[in-house]
Design goal:
The longest helix is centred in the C-terminal third of the chain and has 23 residues. The protein starts with 14 loop residues before the first strand and ends in a 14-residue tail after the last helix. Helix content is 41%, strand content 18%. The strands form three sheets. It has a six-stranded mixed sheet. The protein has a five-stranded parallel sheet with strand order 2-3-4-1-5, sandwiched between helices. It has 16 helices and 14 strands. Strand 13 and strand 14 form a beta hairpin. Helix 7 packs across helix 13 and helix 11 crosses helix 12.
Length: 388
Amino acid sequence: MKYIPRKITPPEDSYFLLGPRGTGKSTWLMHNYPKALRIDLLLGEEERKFSSYPERIRDVAAHMAPGDVLILDEIQRVPRLLPEIHALIEQKRDIQFILTGSSTRKLRRAVSDLLGGRALLRQMGPFLASELGQEFSLDKALTIGLIPLIWESKNPEERLRNYIHLYLKEEIQAEGLVRQIGDFARFLEIASFSYASVWTTTDISRESSVKRATIDNYLQVLEDLFLAFSLPVFSRRAKRRLIAHSKFYYFDVGVYRALRPQGILDSSSEIEGLALEGLVAQHLRSWVLAQREPHSLSFWRTATKLEVDFVIYGPRGFWAIEVKRSPNLGPDDVRALLAFKDEYPEVNCFFVTLSKYRTTYRGFPVIPAEEFLLNIDPQNPIFSSESL
């Protein structure tokens, strides 16, 4: 299978590499650290050995030379290792420790301790369009998503179903993260109707017949496993009254498409429009997570229902982005951007649509989705003459 390089800059110090399963963490590490010593904690023998006596990792490190690299895959399987590794990072500063994980459920406090010390954090998600280059297909991405394991599969639809089942069985049920796996599976489907929409726990609780506290826990499980993320409302220097709820996305549009039921009463254009917005969301989130200086990704929605899909704010720029499936824009499509521009004159506003070529509408650039996605690179600003 062809190796596709990822746009991730690895630190020289010890670090965490976190992200969902199937996003290529192990593959990327093998290509970037071919001589590293690797301990795979998904293997039962290794998990049992270090769970029983986590101090055994000291013996491993004692036989390593300066400049060596030690990779511990799926560190959440043996969280008792983290205090030992924390001590080793301080003692063995000439050895680089790389800890991968697909869940922070059992690691929150230990990860915080290590990040407060010398370990850094990198996250790996689905492919970026720019990583695929000429192999990128917008239609394919909107249908099956960009999870490397799925993208490279000969039968991506079946692989997607198996991927979701894998998480239900091996990550959620096996780890005892929820009590009723059937309720959780139903929640995943119901949550798909809130994809790219404002998240209201009360409505989802009512539709799924599950308590609100349980729904909040389910959402936390999804975020801990990197399977979903939420966007807050942009509220800096706000003049208008804004809503308080966040916006919900699965981490990859393919997961959304696999979970979202579609029947004869469902509008395919609505589903495809949400898929396009979600595809843009996961690209913007990858860009934000890759920045060395903190940037925020949010959305803007007033109490009168004026909404801007995405707002990025940080040292590298201030952008407001509206995603529209149709390239034929009208007065209603631009009202929110005009209101946001009026409140924040410093912002750069533009549309992303399924148009075939660049245009402008009411003075705002209208960028074809494929061109926009292909030009998202963590090294460049989101929108500038250099990047687009």
